[in-house]
């Protein structure tokens, strides 16, 4: 070939120079456990459903909202309820709280749950019939969750409850101003319509007999803690004392209970707040919470205490009820000793009250377990293994009747975990060896029952928060105080469509690539290959020099630098 | 409904792209089909800011010029690491002549294109800070003065890195280089004016002058795009950290560029016809110490008795920039 003057070589491309050989470290894409997922007692993959929700309603094809809702439904069948009554451990854990304010995960979940009800979305049962029958006792959140997951796994489910209506404490414990009954009915009804045999109004008194009669292969007990604890209060003849569980339960009856104008609630938990707020709505001009200790020692969640105070509920700290008479209580002042335990002082005051409502905690009614061999009960709750099985093989228990925090979300998580344990138990029984469920879904690490190691947590230090726009949280509207104390209308409103999508987009996607193209953009060596929408990226190891800019500039911390084996 | 509306997308305009953004909202660097003007296999060090800045700027210029672009390169790292004979990393029309004559060669290329009637072909001149503010400065000033139709881009890494980190007219005070060692009563480079090339360019009253850093991709691309809308002499000054010369971790290149901007040491602005028309406000103000600590060229400031006073003087410079350019004033609403 004729070459120009002084040229002896053909022109070549620098692609011949494989600079990847310089590398001592290589970038590796990782998927870490976001703190929200880690904190969720129901084991939801929150980061993933927010990722779908960020796409909004979408055009033409299936909406991002529906995909998000279906993602939630893999773990939690009650999103609209969850979006109202969950105490949001996810938001407490959210890394965004360290940037401006936590992502309003709960409000987005509520929007998705409500949207599903509006659109009539359902989850089909596609698993083949296993031929196994499971009895679930108790139609509260735990029982409903277990019924849902067992149906999805192909088992026949009979759900039995002493109440005529399903819902358990969600119906008979949570007031309507926090959980409207149309929402409850819609989500409970959706589960019952999945082929669950619903037997309401049937109390199970002898579990072994019930299982033998029905030919059940396994049972899940989720009877809750329905019985209000009593405390001895010296009382005059005409003193009116009732317990909070009974009060809240009777709200579902035709006749609201008569409490009088002045109501004292004894206790400091969430139920005490519910009772006091309900009393206000029933016409009490004066609702006072009497609690032995101080605000910071109160078991009630802050948000409940704040909302109660907003509605004019008064609090008396460091006080016990020493005596109850007609229209009048004798209150003894307390003081905390050095261990933080309240001690009487001998100082007394009077408090006018027409009714005393006891909210001193609840205990489980466990007589149905009488005569069931191998089931251990201690501290009033049933002892279970990590798989939620009791000492009697095939009988599982969850929710408020086992040792755990007593919230709806924990109960839902128990239902899921029990369903998977029951499934494994039934399949093992059948095949004589370890069963593998047909729909082996990825489990949240928090509730993993498999032996895979828990993924690493995506903590705040991994994030490069520079890339996140300053975006304040969307605030849910609240009902006017005047309407709050006169009606049982829902106090906290929902986000509208545009606000919900923006709130979802505040998610920082901690530890999981969300395809922002930053690694592809910042590589000085063009060594990041963009695989296209939904397929993320790949490192071109022929040319990657291992500088680490991609890892440093990944907003969500989804790239690790690991040493090369040399 | 009393709801505070969130104004931005998840990552706003700070990351290169986002799956939720429409195509016309993505950066050039987020495009799967970007030019990759400077391709893989080049021999720049790990984490080279100049290689990154050059690809950012030229890919954006290629898009703005509808891919009809000729780049003229002065001598320096960018030329050496991209074209060891017979290999080239350039995927655009590219020419190199001497260290000091890139602006003049660019003028000639522009004249040739005009003579051939190729008004669609645009010309970019480029070089490091040595080739721009020192060796090529006469040619550059002449190009400005004649208002030749060239966009000249300076990739400023604040010293002669290619030949072994010697001081240039753009080296900042107190920085250690091979020729300004960290010895004596005032270690490192002297305090003085230096040569502020963007302000000198503005003094020529050319149509468009701007500064940018590799930490602000969107801003950089906007400025290239804007510069290409003008005919006549234009100047873009891009801060490109050099891991080798600055003594920094390769992975910190963008972080350091960002700190240069957020401390006020490197003001980011644009000017038209000699007047500043906009500045990029500081979003997260940082003390200069945070910037200096990441670079071993400033290590002596943290180990010698006079170091604290020198850091204070550098902080004064940063504060003076903040005051002069109004870098802490609230950003104007961009519709």
Describe the 3D structure:
The complex is a heterodimer of chains A (566) and B (335). In chain A, strands 5-4-3-6-19 form a 5-stranded parallel sheet, covered by helices on one side. A 5-stranded parallel sheet of chain A has the order 8-15-9-10-11. In chain A, strands 12-13-14 form a 3-stranded antiparallel sheet, with no helix packed on it. Chain A folds into 4 domains: 19-31 and 512-563, Alpha-Beta Plaits; 35-122 and 469-504, Fumarate Reductase Iron-sulfur Protein, Chain B, domain 2 (Orthogonal Bundle), CATH 1.10.1060; 133-226 and 364-438, FAD/NAD(P)-binding domain (3-Layer(bba) Sandwich), CATH 3.50.50.60; 234-247 and 255-359, FAD/NAD(P)-binding domain. The model of chain A is unreliable at 435-451 (pLDDT under 50). The radius of gyration of chain A is 28 Å and the shape is globular. Chain A is 29% helix and 17% strand. Chain A contains 18 helices and 22 strands. By secondary structure, chain A is of the alpha/beta class. With 335 residues, chain B is an alpha/beta fold. Chain B has one domain (27-325): 3-Layer(aba) Sandwich (Rossmann fold). In chain B, 33% of the residues lie in helices and 13% in strands. In chain B, strands 3-1-4-5-7-6-8-9 form an 8-stranded mixed sheet, sandwiched between helices. In chain B, strand 8 and strand 9 form a beta hairpin. The longest helix of chain B is centred in the C-terminal third of the chain and has 19 residues, at 307-325. The relative contact order of chain B is 0.12. Residues 1-9 of chain B have low confidence and may be disordered. The interface between A and B is large, with 68 and 57 residues.
